[in-house]
Design goal:
Blueprint: E1 31-34, E2 39-41, E3 48-56, E4 66-78, E5 84-86, E6 92-95
Antiparallel strand pairs: 1-6, 2-5, 3-4
């Protein structure tokens, strides 16, 4: 991951994660956490394709602070002024 959405000048969002839980009863797979709050990125730039979500340590870009990244289930193209959303429970991070 080397850059964020070109032309987006909004804030990074604070993510509230759930308590870690296991998908399987015998806990052989990594525990998971998911977002407990709606994440909205307002005023997106024109004709950008979003393919990944990243979780960063810092509230501001400019430092190499990516803690987690994952591809979206499907790419999303946004138009100028659109709001890109990650609904509650859609950002799932494996803890391994």
């Amino acid at each position: 991951v080397t850059n964020e959405v070109t032309g987006y000048d909004g804030d990074r969002k604070v993510v509230n994660f759930s308590v870690p839980s296991y998908e399987d009863e015998d806990e052989t797979n990594p525990a998971e956490v998911e977002n407990e709050n709606l994440l909205e990125f307002e005023s997106m730039p024109a004709d950008e394709t979003i393919a990944y979500a990243i979780v960063c340590e810092s509230a501001t870009p400019g430092t190499l602070d990516v803690l987690y990244w994952c591809p979206l289930v499907s790419n999303k193209t946004v138009n100028e002024g659109d709001t890109f959303q990650l609904p509650i429970g859609d950002l799932i991070c494996d803890l391994d």
